[in-house]
Sequence to fold (430 residues):
Amino acid sequence: MTVETEPLSENTADVIVVGAGPAGSTTAYHLAKAGLDVLLLEKTEFPREKVCGDGLTPRAVKQLVAMGIDISEEAGWLRNKGLRIIGGGSRLQLDWPDLAAYPNYGLVRKRDDFDEQLARNAQKAGARLFERCNVSGPVVDDRTGRITGVTARLGEEKREVTFRAPLVVAADGNSTRLSLAMGLHRREDRPMGVAVRTYFTSPRHEDDYLESWLELWDRRGPQDRLLPGYGWIFGMGDGTSNVGLGVLNTSAAFKELDWREILKAWCASMPADWGYTPENMTGPIRGAALPMAFNRQPHYTKGLLLVGDAGGLVNPFNGEGIAYAMESGQLAADVIVQAHARATPAQRETALQRYPRVLKDTYGGYYTLGRAFVKLIGNPKVMQIAAQRGLTHPMLMKFTLKLLANLTDPTGGDAMDRIINGLTKVAPKA
Fold:
């Protein structure tokens, strides 16, 4: 059922979405397509940079296809066939699985361009995008405690503005000031990762596999040191490679080391003809947090829904955030559209309360398995043994790829799919 609405004013809408990254823009797109009046508020101006590996798995590709984005090579997208894994003295190349539910290819695209494409797509669908709109806090009804809008500073002159809507979606990333202002704090019992990356001019820029290094060595001291985490090299197809590393806070070394320096040292250990040298670096080393496994809950409370990094939706198995940002945006939009069509406030609230349950049904068991995995690999010796033993067994690694990338057919899949689906069903949905 499509609901036709007229905005009461420029600053009033059915839904406000704070943040025009993948989560916010996807949410706004699906809401606007369903006929709701949506305000999409972005604190910066496009194009703008975000720290990311820039690699998209088939889960993210599926979302782009559903949104009608042109993902052809002519439109500037670089396709990849799968994942190359290096570790334990071995090198294994695995294609993305052939599934009914997901395409068998991934994509690469820089985040400044990628995020803008999604935001413009939401605009085309009917969302009203405000750039350079820095949301400063929620507007809360004193009587009910519900969020009824947001205050913001708009434009170069930082004009103070109030936007109003009965529902607000927090898509403002890991820092999510909006969630904090509504009393939703990060859960310390959930893993947190850090990603640092940079770009190099490199002859490897057209590599059609994403590359993951399971052993991260610090060779700067008198003795080589195995560090907790993994490295990546993604060819961008534009003359550059995205080179970075991901580290988990479950390791003893998480706080004591300078990860930018570790990245420099790791790059220095690469073959010289790859070009990962300081003179070929095209930008600074940047870092960002990876909030994992539902590290902020509840995902709906008092008129506020959390999507993407704001709700800790990053996959703890592999650090992937974009696919889950987009998927949670679509799930949130579906719930909001259904709630909007209900006749009374009580009925709308009943519909909105479904959102946290939908997220837990979709990801809860899988993320619980991921938290156990994160504790294991927080010990770099465990990662080393797994790399040495596992990479010599291609069938085992094919299973591992499906598990780590969360790529299975929900029904009618092969034996591997059934095992993984079974494990996620029996694991607690915390």
Q: What stands out?
A: The first strand starts at residue 15 and ends at 18. The radius of gyration is 22 Å. The chain has eleven helices and 21 strands.
